[in-house]
């Protein structure tokens, strides 16, 4: 990863995601990738300042690995006053997200087709109000745990980006990753876990938007939702 102009230390070379393309992209989505994506794509040639993208934004949210974009688009539709940044390396997911943006005529979404960590390093301190990490690749094999997006290194960068009191939501349907994530977040000492009882993490938050992936129930447990606050 090259210098982003902010003097931030780059992440290591390990990818936190797997494949970047599967089935052929549908013709309409392919057309939107050519026509709409360039208009809403984040300019990564230098620092990324949300204030220059939407100066009147009440808040700025980041979704790391937005999958097919259903959650990101739905949140953007409910909160047009919020600027939502999303990063996704999977080209089919980006194509799906662009379709959602077009169908809902969303003006408050900006997308990076690539590694979210690159965007994280390009953002200024204290610029984010919320971060979503929903159902990321669990990398279930022990030797691959180092590829998980939830690591001490990532959490430290997100803590720098979040405003005091800003929220971090993590969701997974893989029991081992749930345990890992909770341990990593609490160990770093930069966040407070909001749960007071089991239902606080077993029940989807009231503002959660269910995604197609979540509905498939591909994991080994019911979805869990951890909400943390930047200390």
**Which CATH architecture?**
3-Layer(aba) Sandwich
Distance between the termini: 29 Å
Number of strands: 7
CATH top-level class: Alpha Beta
What oligomeric state do the depicted chains represent? Answer: single chain
Spatial ordering of strands, largest sheet: 3-2-1-4-5-7-6
- What share of the residues does DSSP label as strand, in percent? 15-25%
For the sheet with most strands, the description reads: 7 strands, mixed
Portion of residues in helices?
A: 25-40%
- Count of separate structural domains: 1
Q: What Rg is obtained from the alpha carbons, in whole angstroms?
A: 17 Å
User: Which regions contain 5 or more consecutive residues with pLDDT less than 50?
Assistant: 1-6
Structural class: alpha/beta
CATH superfamily: Vaccinia Virus protein VP39
Describe the structure.
The chain is α/β, with parallel strands linked by helices. The protein has one domain: 3-Layer(aba) Sandwich (Rossmann fold), CATH 3.40.50.150. Helix content is 34%, strand content 19%. The protein has 10 helices and 7 strands. The protein has helices at 27-35, 37-40, 50-53, 70-78, 91-103, 116-122, 152-161, 175-188, 199-202, 212-216; strands at 59-64, 82-87, 109-112, 128-134, 162-172, 191-193, 224-230. Strands 3-2-1-4-5-7-6 form a 7-stranded mixed beta sheet, with helices on both faces. Strand 4 (128-134), helix 7 and strand 5 (162-172) form a beta-alpha-beta unit. Helix 1 packs across helix 5. The two termini are 29 Å apart. Residues 1-6 have low confidence and may be disordered.
